[in-house]
């Protein structure tokens, strides 16, 4: 892994799309496999995709969070997409995500945040529900940070969303 010694401090540090350390973390994320071949063909180091971007790297270079807002989405989703969140160490994932959400709302005030979770590729967290039954939850750290289930896409991806008023309440 590429570690950049200038990354000191706590929390998140904004980096540019294509940053070597961020890209190394992204390439270990389950969504990277789809775009890796395409990026190599084009010869680009950029990995977030089109639109207005906010790419955050944790100060210990163990976590990555990428946000993007497209002008027109083909899937009809409105708001700012969390296109990548990967934690390889450091603080609790939900705490890191909450910090990243604050920065996203600073850049994109009042916007709905949303993400997609592929239940076929993400390991579920088993959570105790009513009457001590166990339930599988995909994207558990998102739920812990205040996100809610918003549906399933035609391809079977879980849609999770969060609005600023939900977190403030």
Describe the structure.
It is a single chain. The protein has helices spanning 20-26, 32-42, 93-107, 140-144, 164-168; strands at 12-15, 52-58, 63-69, 80-87, 113-117, 125-128, 134-137, 148-152, 158-162. It is an alpha+beta fold. The chain has one domain: Aminopeptidase. A seven-stranded mixed sheet has the order 1-2-3-4-5-9-8, sandwiched between helices. A two-stranded antiparallel sheet has the order 6-7. Helix 3 (93-107) links the parallel strand 4 and strand 5 (113-117). The model has no long low-confidence stretch (mean pLDDT 89).
Q: Major beta sheet, specifics?
A: 7 strands, mixed
CATH architecture name: 3-Layer(aba) Sandwich
Strand content: 25-35%
The beta-strand count equals 9
Count of individual domains: 1
The strand order across the widest sheet is: 1-2-3-4-5-9-8
The Cα radius of gyration reads 16 Å
Helix content: 25-40%
CATH class: Alpha Beta
Low-pLDDT stretches? none
Q: Average pLDDT across residues?
A: 89
Q: Which of globular, elongated, flat, extended, rod-shaped describes the shape?
A: globular
CATH names the topology as: Aminopeptidase
Order of helices and strands: EHHEEEHEEEHEEH
- Tell me the structural class: alpha+beta
Number of helices: 5
């Amino acid at each position: 892994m590429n570690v950049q010694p200038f990354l000191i401090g706590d929390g998140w540090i904004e980096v540019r799309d294509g940053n070597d350390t961020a890209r190394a973390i992204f390439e270990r994320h389950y969504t990277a496999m789809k775009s890796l071949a395409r990026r190599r063909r084009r010869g680009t180091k950029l990995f977030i995709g089109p639109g207005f971007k906010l790419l955050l790297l944790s100060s210990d270079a163990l976590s990555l969070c990428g946000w993007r807002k497209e002008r027109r989405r083909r899937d009809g989703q409105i708001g700012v997409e969390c296109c990548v969140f990967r934690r390889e160490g450091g603080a609790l994932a939900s705490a890191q995500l909450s910090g990243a959400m604050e920065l996203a709302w600073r850049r994109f005030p009042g916007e709905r945040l949303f993400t997609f979770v592929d239940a076929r590729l993400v390991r579920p967290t088993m959570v105790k529900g009513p009457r001590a039954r166990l339930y599988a939850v995909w994207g558990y750290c998102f739920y812990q940070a205040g996100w809610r289930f918003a549906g399933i896409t035609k391809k079977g991806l879980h849609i999770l969303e969060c609005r600023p008023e939900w977190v403030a309440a």
